[in-house]
Amino acid sequence: MTDMLSVVARAICKARGHNPNRRHEEYGQSSHGYWEWELYDKEAKAAVAAHEKALEAQGLVIVPREPTDKMKMAPRARGQIGPVGATEVWQAMIAALEGKDE
User: Fold this and answer.
1) Are 10 and 50 in the same domain?
2) Which of 8, 36, 60, 63 has the fewest Cβ atoms within 10 angstroms?
3) Which residues pair with 26 in a beta bridge?
4) Are 9 and 43 in contact (CB under 8 A)?
5) Into how many domains does the chain fold?
């Protein structure tokens, strides 16, 4: 399970009144154990999928706060700005979205 899904699964577990850090042992053996939050992986996947679908319906996507190396090089491949310029443009766009562009 990805970090994002485990965070969501833990939140669902806690919201249902359970302790996400509780350890279960099957057959009395710790080698067959699992965490309480792991019982909510299906619900976490469904919640994240629903969130992504809602974002898509509004024309939105989730992007990283800082551009990845691949993203930085994309403008250069098109003969536009280089990686440093791409980073500055990206940061300005994120700041504008967050209302920090003043």
Assistant:
1) yes
2) 60
3) 29
4) yes
5) 2
Measured CA to CA, the distance from residue 49 to residue 55 in angstroms comes to 10
Structural domain of 99: 63-102
pLDDT-based confidence at 1, cuts 50/70/90?
A: low
At residue 70, the pLDDT reads: 79
Cβ contact 74:83 at 8 Å: no
Q: How many of the other CB atoms lie within 10 Å of CB of 25?
A: 11
Distance CA 68, CA 70 (A): 5
Q: Which of 27, 94, 92 has the alpha carbon at shortest distance from 63?
A: 94
Buried b / exposed e over 55-66, threshold 16 CB at 10 Å, is eeeeeeeeeeee
Task: Look up the pTM and report it.
Answer: 0.64
Between CA 34 and CA 25 the distance in angstroms is: 7
* Cβ–Cβ < 8 Å for 16, 43: no
What's the pLDDT score for residue 49? Answer: 94
Do 27 and 53 sit in the same domain of this protein? yes
